[in-house]
């Protein structure tokens, strides 16, 4: 089930209520500084087609049927626009006076902004998807901003809150909407985009596109009618008119009832999670001023019955689906169904798709005898291709060193690149990494993807031949896109005693807007030197900027300068590519949410169906899940989470829990090796500086074991959350004494979402004092046997990345409790699993690797290594990063290499040399 992107209802600034007919708004527009009239200034009623230009004396007159509360806008090029909120009510004539101030910044602006950099282009693409139309909307190709260069972007980084992107424009956006037949001047007032939500407001002036083509006029009229009858305005109008027999909407109450474990079958869910309701059952009251208050205590799920559109929520209905939720449990509308305050509603689903491309002016009135019919406004093959394009992903990796020797240990970090960043929650959480050469796979690993980040390592055998290899990375899902989603980076493996060299060390220099300022201090201790390193990241204006980065510090005497094979800024060009129009998509390889199994159920009796529930158990119930085989007996299971190799028990079970039939596992298909691997041409020359030293794995193992042993003495298992990482939410002990389970579930459990597209979801997993109960209903188990005040702690894992480590059993989320000593009155279960009747398979899990040891012991001499420090998860706080680096004696100079990307998408790569001996003098 794909996560719905919530689109804020803050779409247009409108202060509207009942219409009054035959009114006149007149007035004058003056220059504030001189008091002189401004001829040919634009004056219009926002969000309508009602407007005019001033005469030579600055006067204007607008006639029409106005809402009771309106915004009248006056604008002129080179001046700040002025907006006046007007309460019309029953007045037949309104007089206004506008005084516009000169915008000196605009008058002195001489820079032509029609050509922008790549970062601006990516931000503008996101802006268009939120502002104009979604990528799969058929209207997207029919609407265009004619002056895109007037839009400026800024990434805002508030303290204690998520970053958000804002867009601004000194001039109105000039938009042509050939889908509905309007020219639009949009005066953008505010635009904000976060990872979860988006919203914008502004003043809008619509002008119908003139045409004498009768067929074009008919198409526009039909499109306007279609959009009106599927709009929020028409839904609201149906509510206040009590249209109980509406053919346009199917309405269901969708109250929150805990974790989102609904099935994709709409008809099955009726009466379980959604409840049919009628228009006349929704309470509304007139407020006496021409407006109505609609009371909405629960979320509504709405089916748009007169339209065809694929959705990601149900596989049994083919209508668009929307959800409406009132923040204050009510919202106000005028007698035309126009929302008074857009901030009162949260829209998701189909209604949240209603960007500028589908909005009509508020003075638009449909034909009274119109009956909505589907005119083919569903997603066509080209838009299906656009949808598939949005689901593309590709990894990018960077290694700790540019080349290696046989017998060495290596590390890498990286991140996933997504065509649509908002969909990363539903995309792959497993990366496959191979070491290949000349058609041969020498090593194959799989590592978890955590929140789009990648971290791993590898050991090169001492007998590995010295030559050029390729590190290949891909996901199971990206195999559907052939080589487009595959990352390749050459890895030279050099003969011992030699170093690589390229004939020309020059690289293409790219303009980078991020600067890294380095500051450090050195102190000698007995076993090694200690360097306190500070990195400050600033933009071109010397402002601190937050970045995610990968930091490698090498002994520059041991590792010679060698150009990077692929920089992140080069990899980002993939985001600007798109699928070819003739691309034939077939999802043969599904998305992996963990270690995956593919198999076939073979029945042992003729009358048995091939469609069966397949039970999967890891070890002694360390993980548990069920999947369903299809009509051919084939099944797919994903989401298991373990390292190295584990025993997996699989069987179909009857109603009495007895195993039957036979299971055959199908090996995972390896990706075909491309015939065109990246070619890195280099020479090798003898290493002449000192004795060559290698990054040998055994020395790092000793250091890592010491650090782990030290940490065990400091933290208990409960304090370390039993190794499961940081929870999404934690209920504090002082809160538990005041809260009931109902209050806790209502406050925290609405965050549980099943974002595993097309996969089954079990109930919430319960972990009690470190013991998990994957075969129980976790919420029921805990709430029936414990009270909050009897517990030491309640920890909730609800986001897809924190709960991934729990495997299939944690699909729906996890609630972990720690009981108070002496009050463990809850149930005690024997969790031993009896595998009788199950078939057992040895399945390879995630590859284990030792993370780079950053804290060697203080009482142990630190021997020289080529890799002094490696940080694949660097992240700044207010533009700064500080760390302590332990440097072996004998190291004379360091090469610091930083690859990263700012939170607003600007990639960079920096290399700096630090001369230790000179710094000590």
UniProtKB/TrEMBL annotation:
It comes from the Bacteria. SUPFAM superfamilies: Carboxypeptidase regulatory domain-like (SSF49464), Porins (SSF56935). InterPro entries: CarboxyPept-like_regulatory, Plug_dom_sf. This is Carboxypeptidase-like regulatory domain-containing protein. It comes from Algoriphagus marincola.
């Amino acid at each position: 089930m794909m996560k719905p992107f919530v689109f804020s209802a803050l779409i247009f600034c409108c202060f509207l209520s009942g219409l009054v007919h035959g009114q006149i708004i007149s007035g004058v527009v003056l220059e504030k500084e001189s008091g002189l009239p401004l001829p040919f200034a634009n004056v219009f009623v926002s969000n309508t087609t009602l407007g005019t230009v001033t005469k030579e004396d600055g006067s204007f007159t607008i006639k029409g049927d106005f809402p009771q509360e309106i915004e009248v806008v006056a604008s002129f090029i080179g001046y700040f626009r002025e907006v006046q909120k007007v309460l019309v009510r029953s007045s037949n004539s309104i007089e206004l006076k506008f005084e516009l101030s000169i915008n000196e910044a605009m008058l002195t602006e001489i820079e032509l902004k029609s050509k922008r950099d790549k970062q601006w282009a990516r931000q503008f693409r996101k802006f268009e998807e939120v502002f104009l139309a979604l990528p799969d909307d058929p209207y997207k190709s029919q609407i265009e901003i004619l002056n895109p260069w007037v839009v400026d972007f800024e990434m805002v980084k508030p303290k204690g809150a998520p970053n958000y992107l804002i867009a601004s424009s000194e001039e109105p956006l000039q938009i042509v909407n050939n889908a509905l037949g309007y020219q639009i001047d949009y005066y953008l007032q505010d635009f904000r985009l976060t990872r979860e939500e988006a919203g914008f407001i502004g003043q809008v002036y619509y002008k119908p596109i003139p045409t004498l083509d009768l067929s074009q006029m008919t198409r526009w009229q039909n499109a306007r009618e279609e959009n009106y009858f599927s709009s929020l305005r028409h839904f609201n109008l149906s509510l206040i008119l009590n249209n109980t027999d509406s053919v346009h909407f199917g309405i269901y109450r969708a109250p929150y009832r805990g974790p989102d474990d609904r099935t994709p079958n709409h008809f099955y869910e009726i009466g379980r999670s959604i409840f049919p309701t009628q228009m006349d059952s929704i309470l509304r009251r007139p407020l006496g001023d021409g407006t109505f208050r609609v009371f909405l205590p629960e979320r509504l799920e709405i089916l748009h019955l007169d339209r065809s559109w694929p959705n990601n929520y149900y596989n049994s209905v083919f209508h668009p689906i929307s959800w409406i939720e009132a923040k204050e449990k009510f919202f106000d509308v005028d007698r035309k169904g126009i929302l008074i305050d857009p901030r009162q509603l949260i829209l998701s689903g189909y209604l949240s798709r209603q960007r500028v491309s589908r909005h009509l002016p508020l003075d638009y009135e449909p034909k009274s005898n119109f009956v909505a019919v589907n005119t083919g406004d569903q997603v066509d093959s080209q838009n299906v291709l656009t949808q598939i394009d949005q689901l593309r992903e590709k990894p990018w990796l960077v290694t700790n060193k540019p080349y290696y020797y046989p017998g060495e240990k290596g590390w890498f970090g990286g991140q996933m690149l997504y065509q649509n960043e908002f969909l990363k929650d539903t995309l792959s959480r497993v990366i496959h990494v191979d070491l290949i050469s000349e058609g041969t796979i020498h090593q194959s690993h799989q590592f978890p993807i955590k929140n789009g980040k990648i971290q791993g390592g590898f050991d090169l055998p001492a007998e590995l031949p010295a030559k050029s290899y390729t590190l290949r990375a891909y996901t199971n899902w990206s195999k559907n896109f052939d080589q487009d989603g595959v990352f390749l980076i050459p890895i030279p493996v050099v003969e011992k005693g030699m170093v690589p060299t390229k004939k020309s060390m020059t690289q293409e220099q790219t303009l980078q807007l991020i600067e890294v300022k380095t500051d450090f201090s050195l102190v000698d201790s007995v076993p090694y030197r200690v360097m306190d390193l500070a990195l400050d990241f600033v933009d071109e204006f010397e402002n601190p900027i937050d970045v995610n980065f990968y930091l490698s510090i090498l002994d520059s005497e041991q590792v010679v300068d060698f150009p990077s094979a692929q920089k992140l800024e080069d990899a980002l060009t993939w985001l600007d590519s798109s699928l070819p129009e003739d691309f034939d998509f077939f999802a043969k390889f599904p998305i992996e949410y963990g270690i995956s199994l593919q198999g076939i159920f073979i029945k042992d009796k003729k009358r048995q169906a091939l469609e069966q529930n397949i039970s999967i158990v890891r070890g002694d119930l360390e993980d548990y899940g069920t999947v369903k085989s299809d009509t051919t007996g084939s099944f797919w299971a994903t989401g298991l989470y373990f390292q190295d190799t584990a025993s997996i028990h699989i069987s179909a079970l009857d109603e009495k829990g007895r195993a039957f039939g036979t299971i055959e596992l199908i090996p995972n298909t390896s990706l075909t090796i491309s015939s065109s691997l990246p070619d890195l041409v280099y020479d090798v020359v003898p290493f002449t500086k000192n004795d060559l030293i290698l990054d040998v794995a055994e020395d790092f193992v000793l250091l890592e074991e010491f650090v782990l042993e030290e940490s065990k003495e400091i933290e208990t298992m409960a304090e370390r959350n039993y190794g499961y990482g940081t929870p999404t939410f934690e209920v504090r002990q002082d809160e538990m004494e005041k809260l009931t389970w109902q209050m806790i579930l209502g406050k925290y459990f609405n965050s549980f979402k099943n974002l595993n597209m097309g996969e089954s979801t079990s109930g919430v997993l319960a972990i009690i004092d470190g013991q998990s109960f994957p075969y129980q209903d976790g919420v029921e188990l805990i709430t029936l046997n414990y009270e909050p005040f009897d517990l030491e702690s309640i920890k909730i894992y609800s986001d897809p990345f924190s709960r991934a480590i729990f495997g299939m059993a944690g699909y729906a989320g996890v609630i972990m409790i720690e009981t108070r000593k002496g009050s463990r009155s809850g149930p005690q279960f024997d969790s031993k699993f009896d595998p009788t009747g199950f078939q057992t398979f040895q399945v390879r899990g995630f590859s284990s690797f030792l993370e780079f040891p950053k804290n060697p012991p203080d009482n142990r001499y630190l021997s020289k290594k080529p890799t002094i420090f490696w940080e694949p998860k660097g992240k700044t706080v207010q533009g700064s990063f500080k760390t302590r680096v332990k440097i072996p004696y004998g190291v004379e100079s360091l090469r610091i290499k930083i690859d990263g990307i700012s939170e607003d998408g600007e990639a960079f790569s920096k290399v700096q040399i630090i001369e230790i001996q000179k710094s000590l003098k």
